[in-house]
C-alpha cells in the first residue's frame, strides 16, 4: 500500500532531481513529496543515498512508532537524529573551533 | 572497565519515554542546560567541540524530569508550564524526587478521581483490594475486609522473602528498617531500604505528573507520601526485593542498589507503567485515553445535582427565586 513520503535533498547531483521527479513532486527546490509503496521508497532511498556525494538527504515516512514516523538520513550534516529509547530528537552538533553563532538571549 | 562507565556517567542523557494513556510522555534530562531561545526550548550539551543543541518538543510532553547537572532558565520553565507540562527535580536516574512544579493548566481529572475514591469508604476499600490484586496477580473473594487484606499481604511478602533467602542461601532473613539501628542491619535490609527510597522517588514523580495528591493514600494513611507508598508497593515484589537479595554479599549495598537502578534507567522506564496503573486503580472506566479531538480543556463548575456545568456562563437567570 502506498503511503506518503517526504524526501528533502541538498546539494545532490542534478540527475538525482530528474530521477526523483519520476515518482514524486518537487514542491520546493530539493524537496520531494509523493505517495509510494514501501518497495519503491526503499529503492529510491538506496539510489539517492548511493549517489549523495557531498550532498545530504533526509527521508521521512509513516512508521509504526510512537511518533508515527521514521527518519533516515544520508550524508553528514550538523543536524543528526538523536535516538532515545525509540524516540527520535534532532541534535544540532557543534563544529570544531567554531564560536557560537549567537549567544542565547535568555 | 572504568573507562566506559566513567564516560557513561559524564555523558548527558536525554531519555524520552513513550506516550501512555492521556498523552503522557516523560523526558528525563541530566547534565544539560535548558534554555529558551527566541523560538523554542533547547537542551544544550557541552562537548569538546562546542555546544550541541537538542530542541525539546515541550508541547508534546507531559512531564520533564530534571536530573543532576541540569540547569534551567526561567523563560524555559515558563514555556514548559504554558504547555501544561509538569517539571520534577529528581536525583540521578530518578532515584529521588525533590520537588515538582505543576502548571496551572494541568487537568484535575485524576486528582478528582483520587479524592472521590478516597473519601468514600466503599470505593476506598475497592481500590485497596484492586491494589492487592494488581500486586500479586490474584483475585480476592468478595467481602474481604481491610484487616484480612493486611494479613494476606503480610503472608505473601513473608513467603517471597523466604523463597528469595533460600535461593541466595541466606540462613535467616528478617525485614528491619529501624533508622535508630541502621548500622547493625544486614546488606539485604540496607539494599532494600535504599532501593525502596529510589522507587518512592519515581512513583512520586508519576503521581505529580498526573496531578494527584501524594498524601491521600488508600492502604497507607497519615503521611504526606501515603499514596506514594501505596503505589510503590505494587512494584516491590518484582523490582526492589529481588534486587536487594541479589546484593546480599555486597560491600556497599545501599550505593549498589541505587546504582543498579540508575544505570539502566530501570526506574524511569517504569514511569509509563506507573501512570497507567494509577489511572486504572482510580478510575478503571476512564483509564483509556481520550481521543485528541475530544480532550478539550475547559474549566467547569460543579453542581451536586446537575454534575459538571460549563464555566464562563452567567447563571444569574438560571437560579430559582
- Ends of chain A: how far apart? 48 Å
The tally of helices of chain B reads 10
Largest interface: A-B, 19 and 28 residues
Please give the largest β-sheet of chain A.
Answer: 5 strands, antiparallel
Catalogue the unreliable spans of chain A: none
Instruction: Provide the low-confidence segments of chain B as ranges.
Output: 291-297
Mean pLDDT of chain B: 82
Rg from Cα of chain A: 16 Å
End-to-end CA span of chain B: 81 Å
Helix content of chain A: 10-25%
- Pattern of helices and strands of chain A: EHEEHEEEE
CA-atom Rg of chain B in angstroms: 22 Å
Class from secondary-structure proportions of chain B: alpha/beta
Quaternary organisation: heterodimer
What letter string, H or E per element, gives the SSE order of chain B?
Answer: HEEEEEEEHEEHHHHHHHHEE
Structural class of chain A comes to alpha+beta
The tally of beta strands of chain B, per DSSP, is: 11
Global outline of chain A: globular
The tally of helices of chain A reads 2
Query: Count of DSSP E strands of chain A?
Result: 7
Amino acid at each position: 500500500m502506498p503511503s506518503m513520503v517526504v524526501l528533502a535533498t541538498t546539494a545532490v547531483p542534478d540527475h538525482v532531481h530528474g530521477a526523483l521527479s519520476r515518482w514524486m513532486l518537487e514542491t520546493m527546490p530539493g524537496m520531494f513529496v509523493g505517495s509510494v509503496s514501501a518497495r519503491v521508497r526503499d529503492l529510491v532511498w538506496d539510489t539517492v543515498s548511493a549517489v549523495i556525494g557531498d550532498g545530504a538527504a533526509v527521508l521521512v515516512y509513516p512508521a509504526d512508532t510512537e511518533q508515527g514516523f521514521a527518519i533516515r538520513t544520508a550524508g553528514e550534516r550538523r543536524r543528526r537524529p538523536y535516538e532515545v529509547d525509540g524516540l527520535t530528537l534532532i541534535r544540532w552538533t557543534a563544529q570544531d573551533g567554531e564560536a557560537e553563532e549567537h549567544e542565547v538571549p535568555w | 572497565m572504568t573507562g566506559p562507565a566513567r564516560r557513561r556517567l559524564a555523558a548527558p542523557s536525554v531519555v524520552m519515554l513513550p506516550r501512555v494513556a492521556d498523552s503522557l510522555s516523560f523526558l528525563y534530562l541530566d547534565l544539560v542546560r535548558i534554555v529558551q531561545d527566541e523560538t523554542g526550548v533547547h537542551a544544550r550539551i557541552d562537548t569538546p567541540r562546542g555546544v550541541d543543541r537538542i530542541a525539546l518538543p515541550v508541547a508534546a510532553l507531559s512531564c520533564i524530569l530534571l536530573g543532576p547537572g541540569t540547569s534551567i532558565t526561567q523563560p524555559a520553565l515558563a514555556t514548559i508550564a504554558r504547555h501544561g507540562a509538569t517539571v520534577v527535580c529528581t536525583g540521578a536516574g530518578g532515584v529521588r524526587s525533590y520537588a515538582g512544579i505543576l502548571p496551572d493548566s494541568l487537568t484535575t481529572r485524576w486528582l478528582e478521581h483520587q479524592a472521590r475514591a478516597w473519601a468514600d469508604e466503599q470505593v476506598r476499600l475497592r481500590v485497596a483490594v484492586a491494589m492487592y490484586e494488581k500486586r500479586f496477580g490474584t483475585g480476592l473473594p468478595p467481602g474481604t475486609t481491610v484487616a484480612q487484606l493486611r494479613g494476606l499481604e503480610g503472608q505473601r511478602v513473608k513467603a517471597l522473602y523466604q523463597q528469595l533467602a533460600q535461593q541466595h542461601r541466606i540462613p535467616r532473613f528478617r525485614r528491619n528498617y529501624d533508622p535508630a539501628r541502621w548500622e547493625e542491619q544486614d546488606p539485604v535490609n540496607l539494599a532494600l531500604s535504599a532501593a525502596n527510597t529510589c522507587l518512592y522517588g519515581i512513583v512520586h514523580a508519576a503521581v505529580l505528573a498526573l496531578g494527584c495528591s501524594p498524601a491521600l493514600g488508600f492502604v497507607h494513611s497519615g503521611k504526606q507520601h501515603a499514596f506514594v507508598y501505596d503505589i510503590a508497593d505494587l512494584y516491590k515484589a518484582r523490582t526492589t526485593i529481588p534486587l536487594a537479595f541479589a546484593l546480599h554479599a555486597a560491600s556497599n549495598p545501599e550505593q549498589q542498589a541505587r546504582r543498579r537502578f540508575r544505570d539502566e534507567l530501570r526506574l524511569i522506564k517504569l514511569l509509563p507503567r506507573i501512570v497507567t496503573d494509577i489511572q486504572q486503580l482510580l478510575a478503571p472506566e476512564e483509564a483509556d485515553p481520550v481521543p485528541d479531538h475530544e480532550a478539550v480543556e475547559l474549566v467547569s463548575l460543579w453542581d451536586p445535582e446537575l454534575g459538571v456545568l460549563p464555566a464562563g456562563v452567567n447563571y444569574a437567570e438560571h437560579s430559582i427565586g
